Automatic annotation (TrEMBL):
Name under which the protein is recorded: ABC transporter ATP-binding protein
Organism expressing this protein natively: Parvularcula marina
Organismal lineage: Bacteria, Pseudomonadati, Pseudomonadota, Alphaproteobacteria, Parvularculales
Entry similarity comment: Belongs to the ABC transporter superfamily.
Record-annotated ABC transporter domain positions: 3-238
Role of this protein: Part of the ABC transporter complex HmuTUV involved in hemin import. Responsible for energy coupling to the transport system.
Record bears the keyword Electron transport: no
SUPFAM superfamilies in alphabetical order: P-loop containing nucleoside triphosphate hydrolases (SSF52540)
GO molecular function: ATP binding; ATP hydrolysis activity
Record-linked Pfam families: ABC_tran (PF00005)
Keywords in alphabetical order: ATP-binding, Nucleotide-binding, Translocase, Transport
Amino acid sequence: MSLIVRKLSVPLGECHIVEDASLTVEPGNLTGLIGANGAGKSTLMRAIAGLLPDAKGEVRLDDITTASLTPRQLAHRLAYLPQGQQVDWSLTVRDVVGLGRFPFQGRFGRPSAEDRAIVEDTIGRLGLSAIAERAATSLSGGERALVLLGRALAARTPYLFADEPTAALDPARQLEVIDLLSAEAKSGKGILVVLHDLNLASRYLDQVIVMHRGRIIADGPPAEVLCEDTLQTAYGITPLTGESDGQRWLIPWRRT
Ligand SMILES: Nc1ncnc2c1ncn2[C@@H]1O[C@H](COP(=O)(O)OP(=O)(O)OP(=O)(O)O)[C@@H](O)[C@H]1O
C-alpha cells in the first residue's frame, strides 16, 4: 500500500513545467519535496492530487489509479493543503476546520457527532481553541495557516499533501506543526510536504525528493540527499552542517 507516481509530466505549450516525475509516498513516512522557487514542486503536488487535467502519467493510490476515482472518492483518500491560501468566507475558525469533513457528509447532510468530535480534536491539537469562534477573515497570517492545516487534517485521510505548511509560522509553531505531521506519519499516514526550510527537512523528513527545473534530481533519506553537490545544483548554495542531540542540522551558509 502506497502512493506511486510514474512518469508524471505537466505540459505548458511546447515545454513541460514538470517532466517525467516518478516517486513513492509510503504510509508511515514524512516525505518532503524541496527545491528552488519555480522548480515545479507545487505543480507536481497539484498534478498528483488530480487537480491538473493536462497532466500525463500515472498515479496509483493503494493500487487504484486515481484517474478512475470520482472527486469524492479521491477526497476520502487524500487531503490537500494548497500553498498560502486566503480565507474569504465569512465563517468561524470552527466552521473552516469543519469543511474538512465535507466529503464525508451527504449532499444535504449535517455534521455527525463523529464529525464534530474530530473537528474539536483537531482544533485542540493545533492550539486553536481560544479562537475557535473568531471570524476566519480576522486571523493573522500564521493563525490562518494553522486553521487551513486544520481543515486538511480534519479529513483524516490516509494521505495528506501540504504545500509549505510551515511558511507563515514562527519558530515554535514551525516545530509544533512539523512534530504534529511527523506524529501523523508515524500513525500510518503517507504525508507529502513542500518545505523551504532545509533544517526542518534534515531533522524531520524520512524521505527527501529534490526538484530542479521541473525534474526530480534526488530522492532518498536526508543524510544522503542533502549533500553539498545536490544543494549546489538545486539552490546554488553551500550548507553549514553539524549534529546536536543525535540529529543532523543544516543551514544555508553561502551562495556559490
Ligand atoms: N499556468 C501557468 N502558466 C505559466 N507558467 C506557469 C503556470 N503554472 C506554473 N508555471 C510556472 O511553472 C514553474 C513552476 O511553478 P511551481 O509553482 O510549481 O513552482 P514551485 O517549485 O512550487 O515554486 P515556489 O517555491 O516559488 O512556490 C514556475 O516557473 C511557474 O511560474
